[in-house]
TrEMBL record:
It is found in: Membrane. PANTHER family: BYPASS OF STOP CODON PROTEIN 6, INNER MEMBRANE PROTEIN YBJJ. The gene is ybjJ. This is Inner membrane protein YbjJ. The chain crosses the membrane at residues 49-67, 99-120, 141-158, 164-183, 203-218, 270-289, 295-317, 329-348, 354-376. It comes from Planktotalea frisia.
Amino acid sequence: MSYLNTLITDLRHSKPAAAGFVSEGLFWGTFAGLVPDIKAAIDASDGQFGLAMFFASLGAVAAMWLAPRVDAKLGNRAMQGAALAMALAFLLPGLASSVAFFTLAMVLASASSGSLDVIMNTRLSGIEADTNRSLMNLNHALFSFAYAGAALFTGLFREAGFQPFFVFVIMSVLVFMLIPVMFHKPVGFGEGEAQEPLKVRTALIFFGGAIILVAFMSEQATEAWSALHLERGLGGSAAQGALGPAILGLTMGVGRLSGQFIAAHVRETVVLQIAAVIAASGLYIAAGASNLTTAYIGFGILGIGVSVMAPMAYSAVGKRVSNQQRALVITRISVIGYMGFFVGPPLMGGLSEAFGLATSFYTISAILLIVSAVLAPGLRKQ
């Protein structure tokens, strides 16, 4: 009961940012569940789809780089503005009938999503510092649960024959209802805080950003490609294919709620090392699966492991910077992290066309081990 009360208190403290995390989860879960239909509608090969997502990531990174300015300009309504733009932009992929239109649509959707991502993580990091509470894992868990629910319901909508645009409209309406909650006054600088040169934090930004990059790349690999692996490789139906991203989202939510408790007792870098090995094992199992059940188990194990990697990295970095530095540092590690969406799509698409989708998953599994062996120990020293 004490743990439940703590969660409720933490949620109350982070309510505006929490609405942003839920909004992001709804759209990306929907998109993941619709990938097979959208890919068929635009008649794209694996390589073309991966390249389109690569260009979409360019839009996200450009927007994230400018996000601190948007945050400063819109102030209390920054999260609301970014969420509104995202809700409108995500209608466009549902209308796509060509690779070119889909690419443009995803550039706009990813740009608005990237802006919201930086702003809500910056605000949440400030709330953590102001309240002296660990909130990252809880809020990232909300993203995961929203993602899982959206992916699951999207699969049901697909089975019922609904078109992608209709499903995106439903999610947009839900986000419109959450936007009023996102009004938030940013945490101010502490009195007497001196501006520390950003170059002093270069190593911190590199290690924190690289961990987030691998985490996002691993998540994206499953979000965008698991449904294809289950349907095309293992003969699953639309609903069975949507269970891949849904299971990932659900297990990531459970893992992050557990991480909320673990963060209070275990150092973040230790958790990162263990989590990376678990995630790598899960993806390896999913890649080699010969039936749907084994693949589901693998994706579930991946979800448990990868779930805490990004929030733990954000939290570890946030604790090591001042309020004055926070927006800029969070932006930098987020931009590096989003490079996972640069690297992931062409890597997955290229390897899939050349060697098969399973080989793509094996490659991501090997990359995850770098976090445990190199990146987490490096972050610990900062």
